[in-house]
Structure prediction request, 538 residues.
Amino acid sequence: MATSKRASVVETAVLAPLDWIDERTGAVRGTKWFLFRNVPRDISWAQTLGSATLTAFIVQAVTGVILAMYYQPSTAIDPNTGKPVAYSSIEFITNDVTLGWLVRGMHRWGASVFVILLFLHMGRVFLFGSYRYPRELTWITGVLLLVTGMLMGFTGYLLPWDQTAYWATVVGINLNGTAPFLGPWLAEFLAGGPEIVSEALPKWYALHMLLIPGALIGLIVVHIYLVTRLGVTSPPWSSEMAGRERAASEPAAARTGLVRKSGGAS
Amino acid sequence: MARDRGELNREGFARYKDDVRKEGKPFFPYGLFHDTVMSLVVVGVIVALAIIWYVDADGTEAGILGPWYAPPAEPGTTEFIPRPDWYFYFLFYLLRIFKWPESVFIATVGIPTICLILLIGLPFYDRRRERHPLRRPVAMTAALLTVVAMGVLTWKGATAREALGSELVLAVPEWAERQGFADNAEAVRGAELFAQSGCMNCHVYLGEGNANLGAPDLSAIGETNDATYFVQYLTNPAAFGNNVMGSYAYLGEENLAALGEFLASSKGPAGD
Prediction:
């Protein structure tokens, strides 16, 4: 069959570059593998909490990058405002940058939403017993994501360098300091000395926007790969549960569906 | 003979993959649709919170979701109540339960570490294949207790009043009278700091404060050393072999000097 002129134009303009990339990276096959896989027919809203958490993280990443363009992690006194530079930059973001208040507000409240969603998502997985074989590693990376996410909240809290931030962090560092062996050392490193000093702020900033998010992104990639590879579980009370035990007389995967006609007895 | 768990697990997962392939629905667009709607809700909630927070507050003036920012950090102040973000309240309150020095470690490291190990190890000690919540009574009870405990601790942390510094400070004139430092303005200021900075969560002073934690009674501490020594001690207790007490260096030099003066003036009630 001869291809029309339009079809061949499309082919060269769109498909050829995609093929070229796919041949070298497998990216197209990977995307298809992710998008066009099947999931159990009985999954619904309860299973959206994971992607909702991811969305909250993306909001944090995007707003965080914008904030980083204006925020200055310095405790020196700004001669124009008479306040610490970090604090002044937060004031500037909130009051002067176009929609800066919105970006900062979203970052601030997105942190709480992110933490809540982490817990809800974990609760759903626990309720459904989805951490069982073969998804143990998915669960472990999830727990590590919960800890890393909480660390994001902890390190970000100091950055506005206001009274709330400062004193909350004093408490937090003292908590660290009570741990055996590494505790006092860690506390001193985080505080920049026996007390929280000006050198501490850039350290917390680096942890908050480089080290911990790096770890978080790495864990997210592994987590999502495992979820895609191992699949999502059906609700344990579903009569159509994927992988359900069957009576000997009932052939495997026998029901026909609205979504996709199945094989088996039909 | 019963087949072993590994075999049953693998068979179950093979059946799962088979069912998903034959009866499942494609993730795109069906799963992705739910995910997208939910994500839009999440972004909507975040934007709404940001707007309510911004509109209702004004600068350092708090609205229903708190102020835009508190006043700038000031290491020297003592009256400010330290409080972490709400999702750390449970930890914050644990610390108040286990506040005596020998047990602080339990609250800050012990309990969280145990919880974390239990959480990470969950798939390895809960190895039954049953997934239905109603047929997992132990797991569900444990989860319910955890949720209630976290909720109660968070609530208590949110409503907890800090050390009753504002009440203790009322006793300062009486202390000054009994210790005979009423004319020493620096020592009186130090006494106020002492009352407000949480010292009496562990120490006893003239019968006030916490007696059951093993920290020394400081009523006559001035007999032992001078102000300079106390300032050094407060700056870094660890240097004096005290690994229980934290550093108070954050109070700043002026405040530490006042505290040192107060401690040096505390030579025990006159006439004792």
Observations:
- Chain B has three domains: 1-72, 82-162, 165-265.
